[in-house]
Specification:
This protein has helices spanning 2-14, 42-54, 75-79, 93-97, 163-174, 195-210, 228-238, 286-291, 331-350, 402-424, and strands at residues 34-38, 59-63, 68-70, 89-91, 102-104, 108-112, 117-120, 125-127, 130-133, 137-139, 180-185, 215-220, 243-246, 254-258, 263-266, 270-272, 275-278, 282-284, 300-301, 315-317, 322-323, 358-368, 371-382, 385-388, 394-395. By secondary structure, it is of the alpha/beta class.
């Protein structure tokens, strides 16, 4: 237990910031080379920053439509009343002033892999030597009958932090005591595997304080979920009788919604909701789909050592959009992928061999303000792609005293502070 506790301290409070000493020294500079990065989230911002850190001779342009970036990690805590929207808002000032990244705040509308150009909404076109695409996710609208962008204004998904987070919070605040919150959890693969269950926990924390007669029903397309035993033990301890989970084999897959009647239709039953949080099936971000970087399942196959696209050479896809073997679609994984891709890109621009890579991931989840759980691991290349190193990390132990759970909750706060500083600081 002590070994794991030390591992989590490292990954939670300091491990997000892998030191630059681990990267290749300044060999032959790639002076004048231009790398364009699309997307300023955990993957894109990290990659842009670390390319400049590894070789300041490389020109880096980051394209991001938003002036500020709201993180999905800790957005569930906003719903639980533990954080504010301001506290999960990041900006790009340090990337510009401290790291010399040219941040262009607009939308990339088209990529031409042959000409190596990116067209922008402003009408300008950028030429690149290497391109990084880190667009996050898109939603498969209408995969659930009746659920589209308009329906999301009534039954918010809140799976992209921002206005949807605020909308879901307002609906919870307006709900009557004794109301029913229905959460629809999507099939794999999707962004942040523990996310829907942390969300249920944080909503339960809010309801326990303000609307204790209320219930939460999780309708799930899957037959199991990340950290399931730990979550359910936490629910039994903190919110007995408040949260019910129905998996796919028991009819949990949501087939349709009716926003006028506030009805959610699953395989075996129809459920009336006071608040519905519908998280639809997902695919790679729109620009990746439009460029043909994705396969028929909607995500992007990449070389696991460099994250270079297997479809379009010279383009690297990182973060939630990429097929990254055993690495989950998490903010920490995207940050780790951004660093490894940065090193691979600089090596390619210099005409050097790609160094060996390894990845780290830690996912913290809060079940209550002083009740944290986690899963952590180290990943390396194998003959099957990116695989977890046996014995590295693992999940939180089951039977531990309350102070252990409280410590993991504190580590979660340290993790967030560290990784956001490493990404945007």
């Amino acid at each position: 237990m002590s070994t794991r506790r030390e591992f989590l301290k490292w990954t939670g409070a300091a491990g997000a910031a892998l030191t630059l000493g681990g990267f290749a020294g300044a060999a032959r500079a790639a002076k004048g080379s231009h790398v364009v990065v699309i997307g300023g989230g955990f993957g894109g911002a990290t990659c842009a920053k670390y390319i400049r850190a590894i070789d300041p001779n490389v020109n880096v342009t980051l394209i991001e439509a938003s002036k500020q970036y709201l993180t999905c990690p800790f957005s569930n805590l906003v719903l639980g009343g533990l954080r504010t929207m301001d506290s999960i808002t990041q900006n790009f000032d340090a990337l510009k002033t401290r790291h010399g990244v040219n941040v262009v705040q607009t939308t990339a509308t088209k990529i031409d892999p042959g000409a190596k150009t990116v067209a922008l909404k402003t009408g300008k076109t950028l030429k690149y030597d290497r391109l990084v695409v880190s667009p996050g996710i898109s939603f498969k609208w209408d995969a659930i009958r009746g659920y589209n962008e308009r329906a999301a204004e009534v039954m918010p998904h809140a799976w992209k932090a921002g206005a949807q987070t605020t909308l879901l919070k307002k609906k919870l605040e307006a709900m009557k005591n004794g109301g029913v919150v229905v959460i629809a959890s999507p099939p794999n693969p999707f962004r942040c595997p523990p996310g829907p269950y942390e969300r249920a926990s944080m909503i339960a924390h809010y309801l326990k304080q303000h609307k204790p007669k209320s219930k939460i029903l999780i309708l799930d397309a899957k037959d199991k979920f990340s950290k399931q035993g730990l979550f359910q033990a936490g629910w039994d301890k903190l919110y007995p009788g408040m949260i019910e989970w129905v998996g796919g084999p028991k009819g949990g897959t949501v087939k349709a919604v009716d926003t006028k009647k506030m009805v959610v239709e699953a395989e075996l039953d129809t459920h009336k909701a006071d608040v519905a949080n519908i998280i639809p099936p997902q695919a790679a971000g729109d620009i990746a789909l439009a460029t043909g970087l994705a396969d028929d399942k909607g995500f992007c196959p990449v070389d696991p050592k460099t994250f270079e696209s297997k479809i379009h050479p010279g383009i690297h896809v990182i973060g939630d959009a990429a097929i990254a073997g055993a690495l989950p679609k998490s903010g920490f994984a995207a940050n780790s992928e951004g660093k490894m891709a940065a090193e691979a890109i600089v090596a390619a621009l210099r005409g050097e061999a790609t160094p060996d890579v390894s990845f780290v991931n830690t996912c913290y989840s809060l079940i209550g303000p002083e009740y944290g759980i986690s899963v952590a691991g180290v990943y390396r290349l194998s003959d099957k792609g990116i695989a977890e190193v046996e014995g590295s990390g693992g999940v939180s132990p089951k039977d531990v005293p309350d102070d252990f759970r409280a410590a993991e909750a504190r580590y979660a706060l340290g993790w967030y502070k560290s990784i956001t500083a490493d990404t945007w600081g």
